Amino acid sequence: MATEAARGLVTWLSRQPVHTVIAHIHPEHRASAAVATAAGLAATGERHEGEIRWHRHISR
Question: I need a labelling partner for 59 at 20 to 30 A (CA). Which of 16, 39, 41, 47 fits?
């Protein structure tokens, strides 16, 4: 259900004036990483307050 919701959110954002989707995920939270991957986000290797920054560029 979380994967479906995340994909729906990214789809909706792709129709908005948005260029990048960003998430910060704790490195030990594998379920959130799996949801982010399924929604097309990729880990960047950057960290923010101990969490890994994930992103997806939305092309038009």
Answer: 47
